[in-house]
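Translate structure to sequence.
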């Protein structure tokens, strides 16, 4: 099986490369090798490589910056998946698109189902929602374009909330962290496992066209920050955790509005992939343990 992976330099891309099954013919591309803002480059990559799968883990993920760069965000997050879908539709092959909880508005207070309507709040969410819609438009009812949504991605490398909090616990005595946004962290280590399982069993099982994957449980950003301090101290990554104070979203204004509640219902995906969920605190510990060795 030949797989074209985008976003190889990102935190998920690195986890995917590290955990790729040995039998795969993996062609991993970063921004240098494949500019996702260029649709012709995306189509050409499919024509040249003729992959069995495109695993589109690359994305424009700067949520706040997207508000001032909407054209670039849409080019990468909507234009690239559409270009891949069109090329694969002509050449043959399938697409696994990594998407986000930001396609929902976060107002309902119960876990979002995969089939629910998209209602994004800001440019980033709108661009990812447009990418999903393009894939569904190109492939129609064919299960050749699969969408895997995730949330609050953290990993042992790259830029993410867990590593930022780890650094701030080292540097400060006190932190203020938002406590009124609820979701669930997702380790790149478990997310990569879900991605590879999807590709491995898709030909044998009729997987849902849209799936949700996060680690198990629920948390606020405040909860995650506290856990990073506690686990970081237990692992010897910090001497003494900072005191973490809960604040509100209003106390920490950002250019982009965040969903207040973005839990994803992963029940169907776990059953389809035959993967058990791991509680986010266990997943966080694994992330920080690996970060310790970097």
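Result:
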């Amino acid at each position: 099986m030949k797989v074209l992976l985008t976003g190889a330099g990102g935190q998920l891309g690195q986890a995917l490369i590290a955990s790729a099954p040995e039998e795969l013919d993996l062609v991993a591309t970063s921004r240098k090798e494949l500019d996702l803002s260029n649709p012709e480059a995306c189509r050409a990559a499919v024509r040249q490589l003729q992959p069995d799968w495109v695993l589109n883990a690359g994305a424009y993920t700067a949520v706040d910056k997207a508000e001032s760069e909407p054209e670039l965000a849409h080019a990468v997050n909507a234009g690239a998946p559409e270009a891949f879908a069109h090329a694969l539709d002509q050449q043959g092959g399938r697409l696994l698109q990594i998407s986000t909880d930001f396609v929902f508005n976060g107002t309902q207070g119960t876990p979002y189902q995969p089939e629910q309507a998209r209602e994004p709040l800001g440019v980033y969410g709108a661009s990812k929602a447009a990418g999903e819609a393009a894939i569904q438009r190109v492939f129609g009812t064919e299960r050749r374009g699969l969408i895997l949504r995730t949330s609050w991605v953290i990993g042992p490398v790259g830029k993410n909330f867990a590593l930022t909090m780890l650094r701030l616990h080292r540097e400060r005595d006190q932190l203020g962290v938002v406590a009124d946004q609820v979701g669930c962290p997702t380790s790149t280590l478990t997310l990569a496992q879900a991605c590879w399982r999807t590709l491995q069993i898709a030909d044998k099982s009729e997987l849902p066209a849209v799936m949700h994957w996060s680690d198990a449980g629920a948390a606020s950003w405040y909860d995650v920050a506290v856990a990073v301090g506690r686990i970081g101290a237990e692992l010897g990554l910090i001497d003494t955790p900072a005191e973490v104070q809960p604040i509100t979203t209003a106390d920490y204004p950002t250019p982009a509005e965040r969903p207040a509640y973005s839990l994803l219902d992963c029940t169907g995906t776990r059953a389809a992939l035959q993967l058990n969920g791991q509680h986010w605190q266990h997943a966080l510990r694994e992330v920080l343990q690996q970060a310790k060795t970097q």
